[in-house]
């Protein structure tokens, strides 16, 4: 995390003050331990950010406005540049930093600090893709993983909660946290200014759009309205998924990518969502679909039916309809079979209900140690009568 002058926690002021005193930038300030009084942090010598700002103005030729905008990271960079023994700016870069007239002359080349600020601003929301492009591997946002600086397995936390590439490592030497630019600099062993130039080069390349969470509308459209909008975009045709199953059904509702669009409903006809099945068999429920108690109707329910046949999937339901008489419903998956059957029994207590579940039972030797099948599955339906 990068702190700004004027709002620097006292602990960090002490750390910076010690570094300043070590190099002789600030003298005659006696550092004492942080004291705690009634839960409030106080500092015995009243050393505060004003001293810090004055030091930046005195030793780096900055105006008060510039000093107040200076971040801790930037101050440390300039401090290192002031003292050649420390790893930091070159003399030429430092000279550019302290040119007094730079702020007033728009024709002069950009100062390193201006470049750093510009890069940071441009990189907001892009650090997840910027860092790998700079050769710095990080886990997904909010996740733990190996530290690109010191290694390990899960000591590093890529926080990025403020979209500045914020991170923290439990094992790195102090400072063990920072933003994306700090991470690039430390991983590569270069100055922050050099890291800014590296990131600037990457920013010139096309980057994926940042994934910004979309705020859901308080008055979201009802699922039925959204499904009917999908239905309006669908066309009638033959599903490649069903053809591979040996089913020729030319009047299926298809989306642009060839996926089947199967509308789900309850016994009273209320639309509850939809299932899509891609040509390769990948099945998904449309977001917001209510699965429990819903089904895909294969036959219209009219009058008082004598027989209901409830299957798991849609393809099985189409097959069963060709073989048996009765109202056929597809319950989407096995977990929903009994729920649909119970609702049917409640509404039609005298009807015969047949559960045409997939025949998924296998001998123990037909599965590996993880439970996966080692033989081809027989998907023929297994019939169970429920009265």
Automatic annotation (TrEMBL):
Residues 142-181 form the DNA primase/helicase Gp4 N-terminal Bacteriophage T7-like domain. GO terms for biological process: DNA replication. Pfam families: DUF6246 (PF19759), Zn_Ribbon_Prim (PF08273). Coiled coil: none annotated. Gene3D superfamilies: Zinc finger, CHC2-type domain (3.90.580.10). GO terms for molecular function: DNA binding; helicase activity; zinc ion binding. Signal peptide: none annotated. CDD domains: TOPRIM_primases. Transmembrane segments: none annotated. This is DNA primase. It comes from Xenorhabdus ehlersii.
